[in-house]
Structure formats: C-alpha cells, structure tokens
Amino acid sequence: MRVEEVAQQGHPVQVLSELSQDCDLLAVGTRGLGGFAGLLLGSVSRNVISYSRCPVAVVRGRQE
Prior knowledge:
Layout: H1 12-19, E1 26-30, H2 43-51, E2 56-60
Parallel strand pairs: 1-2
Helix pairs in contact: 1-2
C-alpha cells in the first residue's frame, strides 16, 4: 500500500474531491467540534463522501 500525504490550499471539499480521482481510498478525519455532539460526520467529511471519486473512510479519533 502506498500512502501519500498532500498539503494544498483551497476549499477542503473541492481539493479532496479532485485528489480522489487518482486514489483507491481517501481517508479523512473528523474533528467533531460542531454544534451537534451526537452527529458522527461534519460538513466537510459528509460532502467529501458525496463528491469523492473513490471510496472514503472517515476516521474518528479516540474519545478521551
């Protein structure tokens, strides 16, 4: 498996969706800082799932 880290300026959803064109899997994190603590997905991860050109894994950090 090859893993590539990319830093790029722009709107997160647009940049990640464009980068997903050449990926087999796109992994994104979620901060969980929105107003609704019970929601699993934030607006960026939800939209990346909708517009990505490959499967997306949303990874949530440990709850401490």
